[in-house]
Amino acid sequence: MRFQELVPDGQMVLPFLGRKEKDYNGVFSSVLGAISELLNSMVLEGLVEEEKLDSFNIPCYAPSMEEAEAVINAQGLYDIIHIKMIESNRGNGASLAKRMRSTLEPLIVGHFGAGIVDELFSRFAMNAAEHLVKEKPNVDFLALRLKKKEQT
Predict the structure, then answer these.
(1) What is the distance in angstroms between the CA of the first residue and the CA of the last residue of the chain?
(2) Do 1 and 143 meet the contact criterion of CB atoms below 8 Å apart?
(3) Cβ(125)–Cβ(96) under 8 Å?
(4) pTM of this prediction?
(5) How confident is the model at residue 146, as a pLDDT?
(6) Residue 46: how many CB atoms within 10 A of its CB?
(7) Which residues are within 8 A (CB) of 2 and not within 5 positions of it... i.e. 6 or more apart?
(8) For residues 102 and 1, which has the higher predicted lDDT (pLDDT)?
(9) 111-139 residue pLDDT tens
(10) Domains of the chain
């Protein structure tokens, strides 16, 4: 879709969750598991409808740099101008909550509405502070700068 929206030689930047390791190690499963637990507690408190929680799914996969390059090259629609792994410092629970909110907020607002976002990520920040001490997850981001190839 984005290919059709770009002018010839147009460029775009794509930031998304990524991972340094070739093999998937499940870091995102534990972070997303924490979001799931918090949403469940909000159901028990009557802040979120159970039916909405039951129908919510976060389609999340964090590719390695090699996987992202392979998919883009296989499509043949773009030239990769720049690709970079942005390592997050583990920081504190609040910084992890901000990074996860920047990624997940559109999905959560689209499914549950904007009313729960502040509360959810406030709770996530507190939960993440404890989680960081135990597991030290590293949530990194992949940034790609792509240029539309000339159509032949």
Answers:
(1) 18
(2) no
(3) yes
(4) 0.66
(5) 93
(6) 8
(7) 12
(8) 102
(9) 999 999 999 999 999 887 776 656 555 66
(10) 2-148 (1.10.1200)
